[in-house]
Amino acid sequence: MVMMASAPFLPIVSDAIAAQRLSPSALAYFGDAVYELFIRFIFLTPPQRINAYHHQVVAHVRAESQARYMDILWPHCTAAELTIFRQGRNAAADGPKRVPAKIYRQATGFEALLGYLYLTDPQRLQDVLALLEQHIRAEVAAAESL
Questions:
Q1: Do residues 127 and 114 make contact, with C-beta atoms less than 8 angstroms apart?
Q2: Which of 15, 32, 94, 121 is catalytic?
């Protein structure tokens, strides 16, 4: 499978003031949209049926995947980023019953971090997404080689 090369996928405008006014839950809500658009972007090629796109995207936007990706990001995060992650994690409500609460909270913290970075530091967001993309591509390549 060929995926699109890394490139800025959104017109990002920094707005630190807006980010400071948002609750951790609101940052997570926004970060969820940022992350899903990023995942959709990297799986856009080669052309496939919509159902195939959907299955690929869902596999990567699930709470379990997001929690795993946060584990990958953790050592690369600044103290301020980890604070945003913790605030998002701690603000998480109980998620769906199919997902353990710890995983759901970690995924919510991950989303809050992405939402915060989108609003405050677009270049850092691109760096974080590039790191995630490397891991996602490696996972996809490993799965295809089976």
A1: no
A2: 32
